[in-house]
Amino acid sequence: MPEVASNEEVTERTVIVAGVGPVPPHEPEKLHAPGLRLWGFADHLERRGHRVVLCEAMFGGAEARARPELFAGRRIAHEILPLDLDGAAARLRQIAARERAGALVAFTN
After folding, report:
1. Do the strands 14-21 and 103-106 form a parallel or antiparallel pair, or are they unpaired?
2. Counting beta carbons within 10 angstroms of the beta carbon of residue 60, is it exposed (0 to 12), middle (13 to 18) or buried (19 or more)?
3. How many domains does the chain have?
């Protein structure tokens, strides 16, 4: 990705942001640090003009289903990942192939 000054526009790219949720838009009973980090990056990238595919592996009893309505009006698609590493990796490969993303950023706890 080209380096730009804070006031410059960036050409839209699709970025996959993957990690452990839930993120704040889910309004969970408890927010955990991994979900806050995941949301911070996804939100920032989308506000900078990128299309974001937010991929969450749900933690702490959060509902494990895609909720695109939480991101209505934003350039954020929502995907759920399995909690197991092999399953999450396989699903991310499928999403990356489908989306033809310019980057994949992943977080853990």
Report:
1. parallel
2. middle
3. 1
